[in-house]
């Protein structure tokens, strides 16, 4: 005979499939000897049998339920429907996978016109008893009888109005009695029958209803969305109710075994004497710290302390425990792993290792890398309630407060005076760099996550919000408005670059914390991980920060930001506007020593750690003034100063800008396509790199630069560019009479490169997957356009599961990465592979990269700690993916 | 003993690998009894033996050569070096694969100070004899002795100057004798030895030199480029020289067995009496038509006629034959398949089938689909020598002459007056449509192959040149200039849209020809091909043309061109500028009957053939005025009429345009992303389609539209849009109380769609590979930008083998197509697949599509005949690729 019903002590935590999550946990707690209110679980098998029998509970199951109920009554000394010691039970669903709020629950079952009086008598609280009864009627009617709660709520509202009450707690026992009479009328009206008074009838109706709820609309949709199989079925848990409001020897509370904010090892929680959970939630009475319980009920407190330690040991994690004391007797209602801040998560994980409770691998898995982000940036105090003025794209994390300025020069001026400013612009250009440097944060009303402002701010670790379209900026009036609110030059605002929120005034902040425990955890991560973590860094300051944050090297050093320096931009423009190759070379000759200085600075900071340098990538027009501004200037000058030299100059400039303008610059003349058409630019850059290497080699350092060619789509491009690099290297070695090593590789950021990686690998020492651009081309999304126009709607409407620019799309982009790695290694088994898109700092993407066999990930310096942890977790979860991977290959 | 040397009659055409192409052909002609000057071939094996022996001819090979030479002397009655009947031979290389001009040849070998006099005596032409001798010295010195020809040419030039001659033919026999003396001095100076007088020494030196030439620099590079293996080696052909200038019973000529211009079956050629090939080339004497030979030498003519028929029969193709008559004896020097015009190719192929010479399949393979293009468009007479003024991108084929206009309204006005005009603009917009319709052709100075002008012109079959940057257009002055040439309004120009050339004045044209033979050939193609050919057509006129050109249906009906109609644009703009969904619906309600009319017209023309309709694809801002023009207008108005209503209106418009503007519109808010965010637009379009279907169904027609969702990248997009289509279909069927069939499919034009085709196929009845966009995203090229900026250089420098927008990139884009088809059919074996990019009309791409298992290709109506032929050729070459393909599935 199949066993369909399990008393709590007959189960354990391994029987989730049969008993559901909740049932298995109640069973586990019962078995380790905790005082859990007694009860039993009807298995998921019974649910399936119910459906197979055409939605009917078989006599066999029914009999087992009645047997279990009998046991329950025996253990509790209470009897369902008894007029002196009535048993009240809760009936709850519980499936294998948590489906919060998707299925139904009935509390206080067993209430009827008789037992309510017994409860009133037992609790000495008639108001509570009748309120519980009317709640039961309402809940039962909703879940079991399918009567819309709206009818009950309308009635309640009318009653309140009639009596002149503003809230439910004002209703007296007598009021509730009246309400109950009318509630029962509603039931009669809808079901043409009286509200069931027989508690056994109530019980079986409720069990049926829970089984039925497995297939209600929202449960079906939830399962489909979360890919939970339909055949699992739900279990039903019947548990005796306990009450914390049976007098001053009763109470209820919640406690964490350790402080969930700081991680400190001390019982942390609160409780209310003579109260139920609902009272705590209602907030009418102020709960006491849990420690007060030791004075109120010392024995109960000691027992609870012991139990909390037992639970922590048993579950090997910090627990969040709900308890009730009924007439001096402690009941544990629920325990689960407690939610905690990042700081607490780290401290608890490390402490538990030191206490011998868990091992290092478990500790590493205990901290969610996503949480770490908040520890690495200044952030708004969580306790502060935010008043959001406007919301844009969260372009660069961190929070900042400052006076609003609308112009880079003003920002620099005030910044130099020691003032904190936030630069607010429609969008930024290379001309604004000095203003960005001087500002605490940047806000733009246009542009997306890869706009100039966003990229520069992320590189500098400054907070930034982009595409905040609600801001109507009036540069002439030096103000911006959001609806009726006007913010003037000099007004103070606070922004949160992690959420995209703009707020008025100054808001309390918390500084980044890099605790000892954090360092300890990361050092364990480094010992564990089998995939390298590098940083994207473009200047000596970022290089320094990268090493501080524990990067193994630089995975992406972009050279275009070096071009955008305010002092260099005129020379860069000269180079672009050159009519001949000769003129261009003259400008490049001026840039050469500057770039060489950049590389020397970076190499010095990196102390011999590897540095991957990407040659110039963006299209030329990014270095020129804005086309539309020029059109306005020229049009104005044509009307006002038609013969001026200024007009001629601007007309000429506009012509060149128009000539270089592109319909789709993202897919235009950039990356190695620049190096192919204007080899002199790449030659200058490569010479600057090798001159720097030569100089440092002379000083006794060993520097092995990895030169990376961007945007390769055909092996012939890489072949040509590789030849260029080798030529210059030989020239420099000849000139300096020395030898140094270097490698030449490519970005894989175009689908065609991944698809033909076998050919491309012939010319490459390494591949670095540029997943930002690869995502753009694989999806056919321009990130700047998509994020402002349709991507948000796609994510909200679940068309896409996640933003593919934040979390790597494994099915599409990931397939190209797998193809790229496998074709590449087919040609060159020793090929080094990495990823340098923003996904390199995202945990799921890092896990994917590890499984795909990449040698390293590279991300913003500020995400390096996160990546180190995520890399360790991936290694723990999946074991060693590739034998050839050694720490050396990181 | 290995046989290294073959007399011509010992070989045949199957021995190409051993004898090389030339040797095998000479052997073949000899064997079928043609009077080929006698000779022998030293095999490629001998070449390899030469290299294996360290560049030495082994005694064994040497002996075989001497034996063959002896045979040659015996047969010709001439002896190498003989002072009365000297044998002169040519020594030529000949490898398996033709490597034109890559290796060396020596003519007139056997000449020395003695034999030259014998030749002078025998020919009665001392000038010829000495000229031949000095040519031999020069050629031998170059090829064998490695003396730079520059030395000989400089000497010849000095001699001409001294003597006051302007050209070589003025030199007398005496002059040549002087030159020879000096030539020999040059040889002595460089080699420190006399010019070799022993003909046998000459012969072996020449053979060595030919062997050596297999590994000269240019031959190695040529082989690498053409992937010819290095180990093949070259054969050497030794053949006795014959002379057509030995008197009036001698002569030389060239003849085609059929007319190479028209295909008419008549011997077509020319000859010169008492002359050598060189004399024909030099052009001093005018050759006679070949028919004159029948009067001059009736017997020789008859023999030649017979031989020409024999050769045609033997090679089963029209032959291009070189012959020489030496003292009344006919020699055939060479025969090869003759080059011919498209018209001739078709006629010859069809005639030969009718004459029983070849079968239909062979006939189909004889015509190059690429050639057909010229027959389907008006074109410039090939005999006219072009004077190109400027060159742009060949955006739409065909040629046209007309008066230059600079504005769409002017174009319409003059067009209505019956004048032929060519519209010249910096670029065109939807506002110019009426002007484009009224014009013969379009020229723009900006934009690429997918610019508005290009797309519209190709759709209309009008000639178009885009991105012709050399044109400096001054719209105010109504003129354009190219360098110093100024073309005014009303001046006549001619353009060739197939080459991109702009020319001054009117140029003679040839009208398109669709001969009876052409129709015949295409009907054979239709019987043969196993892949459907559809047309891209957006309006009833194009639909009609598609059927005329033999399309099986419409593979791509773009709906955006319907929006661009001059009368509709204001309503479309109203729709876009709508602030609310309600306002938008009002505008859409106005568009609904118009779109319905479009579809009715197309369905009617297509007479039940399938029609695939793509819902709106381009981003909204394409329908709005140009942003930069608006900026200029607003700036001007701000200065001149700051309070005008016009300024307010334009400012508002500019704001909306700026709001809709995108950084990379190609990757922006377009395709189904429009339908997802503004479902009301797609709903209107789908309703218009189904209303049209309902109306025609009522009239007794059967119309089964195929509704195509563009730019799908994730299955959820297609799922949602499919639901939208089904909803509207059900609504219309309900309203009309009728049933009709339809299918819903998608474009595969984003890499991610191909990579996840298994999922997408769950929601698709068909896939249509949009290879234009798929090429853009797979390469990361914006076509508009790439073609003007770097793509041309890439192709010229052989970075890319071909323009991937013209010829499908099989390695990259093709791999995605294969992935898409195989994943799609994995989910849905019956999935119909096609291609609708421009590659659908390109022969190599069609061959690839057939091999990839696609059911159809779709291309411009004007390329349909080409595609039908190419589809037949693919079927013949590769057999039936997939069993499931039947004519029905086309």
From TrEMBL, chains A, B:
<dbReference type="InterPro" id="IPR018274">
    <property type="entry name" value="PEP_util_AS"/>
</dbReference>
<keyword id="KW-0479">Metal-binding</keyword>
<feature type="domain" description="PEP-utilising enzyme C-terminal">
    <location>
        <begin position="515"/>
        <end position="874"/>
    </location>
</feature>
<feature type="binding site">
    <location>
        <position position="614"/>
    </location>
    <ligand>
        <name>substrate</name>
    </ligand>
</feature>
<dbReference type="InterPro" id="IPR023151">
    <property type="entry name" value="PEP_util_CS"/>
</dbReference>
<dbReference type="InterPro" id="IPR010121">
    <property type="entry name" value="Pyruvate_phosphate_dikinase"/>
</dbReference>
<feature type="domain" description="Pyruvate phosphate dikinase AMP/ATP-binding">
    <location>
        <begin position="306"/>
        <end position="352"/>
    </location>
</feature>
<dbReference type="GO" id="GO:0005524">
    <property type="term" value="F:ATP binding"/>
</dbReference>
<dbReference type="InterPro" id="IPR000121">
    <property type="entry name" value="PEP_util_C"/>
</dbReference>
<keyword id="KW-0460">Magnesium</keyword>
<feature type="active site" description="Tele-phosphohistidine intermediate">
    <location>
        <position position="452"/>
    </location>
</feature>
<feature type="active site" description="Proton donor">
    <location>
        <position position="836"/>
    </location>
</feature>
<dbReference type="InterPro" id="IPR015813">
    <property type="entry name" value="Pyrv/PenolPyrv_kinase-like_dom"/>
</dbReference>
<keyword id="KW-0670">Pyruvate</keyword>
<feature type="binding site">
    <location>
        <position position="770"/>
    </location>
    <ligand>
        <name>substrate</name>
    </ligand>
</feature>
<dbReference type="InterPro" id="IPR013815">
    <property type="entry name" value="ATP_grasp_subdomain_1"/>
</dbReference>
<feature type="binding site">
    <location>
        <position position="749"/>
    </location>
    <ligand>
        <name>substrate</name>
    </ligand>
</feature>
<dbReference type="Pfam" id="PF00391">
    <property type="entry name" value="PEP-utilizers"/>
</dbReference>
<feature type="binding site">
    <location>
        <position position="558"/>
    </location>
    <ligand>
        <name>substrate</name>
    </ligand>
</feature>
<dbReference type="InterPro" id="IPR040442">
    <property type="entry name" value="Pyrv_kinase-like_dom_sf"/>
</dbReference>
<feature type="domain" description="Pyruvate phosphate dikinase AMP/ATP-binding">
    <location>
        <begin position="57"/>
        <end position="298"/>
    </location>
</feature>
<dbReference type="InterPro" id="IPR008279">
    <property type="entry name" value="PEP-util_enz_mobile_dom"/>
</dbReference>
<feature type="binding site">
    <location>
        <position position="772"/>
    </location>
    <ligand>
        <name>substrate</name>
    </ligand>
</feature>
<dbReference type="Pfam" id="PF02896">
    <property type="entry name" value="PEP-utilizers_C"/>
</dbReference>
<feature type="binding site">
    <location>
        <position position="773"/>
    </location>
    <ligand>
        <name>substrate</name>
    </ligand>
</feature>
<dbReference type="GO" id="GO:0050242">
    <property type="term" value="F:pyruvate, phosphate dikinase activity"/>
</dbReference>
<dbReference type="GO" id="GO:0046872">
    <property type="term" value="F:metal ion binding"/>
</dbReference>
<feature type="binding site">
    <location>
        <position position="749"/>
    </location>
    <ligand>
        <name>Mg(2+)</name>
    </ligand>
</feature>
<keyword id="KW-0808">Transferase</keyword>
<keyword id="KW-0547">Nucleotide-binding</keyword>
<keyword id="KW-0067">ATP-binding</keyword>
<dbReference type="Pfam" id="PF01326">
    <property type="entry name" value="PPDK_N"/>
</dbReference>
<feature type="binding site">
    <location>
        <position position="771"/>
    </location>
    <ligand>
        <name>substrate</name>
    </ligand>
</feature>
<protein>
    <recommendedName>
        <fullName>Pyruvate, phosphate dikinase</fullName>
        <ecNumber>2.7.9.1</ecNumber>
    </recommendedName>
</protein>
<keyword id="KW-0418">Kinase</keyword>
<feature type="binding site">
    <location>
        <position position="773"/>
    </location>
    <ligand>
        <name>Mg(2+)</name>
    </ligand>
</feature>
<comment type="similarity">
    <text>Belongs to the PEP-utilizing enzyme family.</text>
</comment>
<dbReference type="GO" id="GO:0016301">
    <property type="term" value="F:kinase activity"/>
</dbReference>
<dbReference type="InterPro" id="IPR036637">
    <property type="entry name" value="Phosphohistidine_dom_sf"/>
</dbReference>
<feature type="domain" description="PEP-utilising enzyme mobile">
    <location>
        <begin position="419"/>
        <end position="500"/>
    </location>
</feature>
<dbReference type="InterPro" id="IPR002192">
    <property type="entry name" value="PPDK_AMP/ATP-bd"/>
</dbReference>
């Amino acid at each position: 005979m199949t066993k369909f019903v399990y008393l709590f002590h007959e189960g354990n935590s391994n029987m989730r499939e049969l008993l559901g999550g909740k049932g298995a946990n109640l069973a586990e707690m019962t078995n380790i000897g905790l005082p859990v209110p007694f009860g039993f679980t009807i298995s998921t098998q019974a649910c399936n049998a119910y459906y197979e029998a055409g939605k009917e509970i078989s006599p066999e199951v029914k009999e087992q339920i009645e047997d279990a109920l009998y046991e329950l009554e025996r253990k509790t000394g209470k009897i369902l429907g008894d007029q002196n010691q009535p048993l009240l039970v809760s009936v709850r669903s519980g499936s294998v996978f948590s489906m919060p709020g998707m299925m139904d629950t009935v509390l206080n079952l067993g209430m009827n016109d008789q037992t309510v009086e017994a409860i009133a008598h037992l609790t000495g609280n008639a108001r509570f008893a009748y309120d519980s009864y009317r709640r039961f009627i309402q809940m039962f009617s909703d879940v079991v009888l399918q009567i819309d709660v709206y009818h009950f709520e309308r009635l309640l509202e009318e009653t309140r109005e009639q009596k002149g009450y503003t809230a439910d707690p004002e209703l007296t026992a007598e009021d509730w009695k009246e309400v109950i009479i009318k509630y029962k009328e509603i039931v009669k009206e809808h079901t043409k029958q009286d509200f069931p008074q027989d508690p056994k009838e109530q019980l079986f109706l409720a069990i049926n209803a829970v089984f039925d709820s497995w297939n209600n609309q929202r449960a079906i949709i939830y399962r489909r969305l979360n890919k939970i199989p339909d055949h699992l079925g739900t279990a039903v848990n019947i548990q005796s109710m306990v009450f914390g409001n049976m007098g001053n020897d009763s109470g209820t509370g919640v406690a964490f075994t350790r402080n969930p904010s700081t991680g400190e090892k001390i019982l942390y929680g609160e409780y209310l004497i003579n109260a139920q959970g609902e009272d705590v939630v209602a907030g009418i009475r102020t709960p006491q710290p849990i420690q007060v319980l030791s004075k109120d009920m010392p024995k109960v407190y000691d027992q609870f302390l012991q139990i909390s330690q037992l639970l922590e040991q048993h579950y090997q994690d910090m627990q969040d425990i709900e308890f009730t004391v009924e007439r001096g007797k402690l009941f544990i209602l629920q325990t689960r792993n407690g939610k905690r801040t990042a700081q607490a998560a780290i401290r608890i994980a490390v402490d538990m290792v030191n206490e011998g409770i868990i091992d290092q691998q478990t500790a590493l898995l205990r901290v969610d890398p996503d949480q770490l982000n908040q520890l690495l940036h200044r952030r708004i105090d969580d306790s502060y309630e935010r008043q959001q003025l406007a919301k844009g794209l969260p372009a660069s994390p961190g929070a900042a407060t400052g006076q609003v300025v609308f112009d880079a020069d003003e920002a620099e001026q005030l910044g130099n005076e020691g003032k904190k400013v936030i630069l607010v612009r429609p969008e930024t250009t290379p001309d604004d760099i000095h203003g960005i440097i001087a500002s605490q944060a940047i806000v733009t009303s246009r542009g997306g996550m890869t706009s100039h402002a966003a990229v520069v701010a992320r590189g500098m670790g400054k907070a930034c919000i982009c595409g905040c379209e609600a801001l109507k900026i009036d540069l002439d009036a030096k103000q911006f408005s959001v609806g009726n609110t006007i913010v003037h030059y000099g007004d103070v605002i606070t922004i949160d670059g992690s959420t995209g929120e703009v707020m008025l005034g100054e808001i309390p902040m918390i500084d980044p914390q890099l605790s000892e425990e954090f360092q300890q955890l990361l050092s364990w991560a480094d010992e564990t991980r089998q995939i390298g973590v590098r940083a994207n860094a473009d200047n000596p300051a970022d290089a320094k920060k990268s090493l501080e944050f524990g990067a193994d090297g630089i995975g992406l050093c972009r050279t275009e930001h070096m071009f955008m320096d305010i002092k260099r931009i005129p020379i860069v423009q000269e180079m672009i506007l050159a009519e001949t190759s000769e003129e261009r070379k003259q400008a490049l000759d001026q840039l050469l020593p500057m770039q060489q200085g950049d590389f020397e600075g970076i190499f010095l900071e990196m102390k011999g750690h590897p540095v991957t340098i990407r040659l110039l990538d963006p299209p030329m027009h990014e270095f020129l003034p804005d086309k539309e501004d020029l059109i306005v200037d020229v049009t104005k000058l044509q009307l006002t100063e038609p013969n001026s030299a200024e007009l001629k100059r601007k007309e000429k400039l506009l012509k060149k800008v128009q000539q270089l303008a592109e319909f789709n610059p993202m897919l235009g003349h950039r990356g190695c396509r620049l190096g192919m058409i204007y080899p002199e630019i790449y030659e200058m850059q490569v010479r600057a790199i090798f001159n720097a290497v030569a100089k440092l080699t002379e000083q006794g350092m060993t520097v092995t630069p990895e030169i990376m060619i961007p945007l390769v789509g055909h092996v012939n491009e890489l072949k040509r560019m590789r030849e260029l690099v080798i030529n210059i290297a030989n020239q420099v070695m000849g000139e300096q009479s020395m030898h140094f090593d270097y490698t030449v590789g490519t970005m894989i950021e175009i689908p065609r490169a991944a698809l033909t990686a076998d050919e491309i690998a012939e010319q490459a020492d390494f591949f670095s997957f540029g997943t930002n651009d690869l995502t753009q081309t694989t999806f056919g999304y321009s990130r700047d356009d998509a994020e402002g126009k349709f991507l948000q709607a796609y994510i909200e409407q679940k068309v896409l599961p996640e933003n593919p620019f934040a979390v790597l799309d494994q099915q599409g982009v990931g397939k190209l990465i797998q193809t790229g790695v496998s074709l590449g290694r087919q040609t060159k088994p020793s090929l080094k592979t990495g990823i340098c898109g923003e996904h390199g700092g995202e945990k799921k993407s890092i896990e994917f990269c590890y499984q795909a066999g990449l040698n390293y990930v590279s991300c913003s310096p500020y995400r390096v700690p996160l990546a180190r942890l995520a890399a360790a977790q991936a290694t723990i979860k999946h074991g060693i993916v590739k034998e050839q991977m050694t720490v050396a290959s990181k």
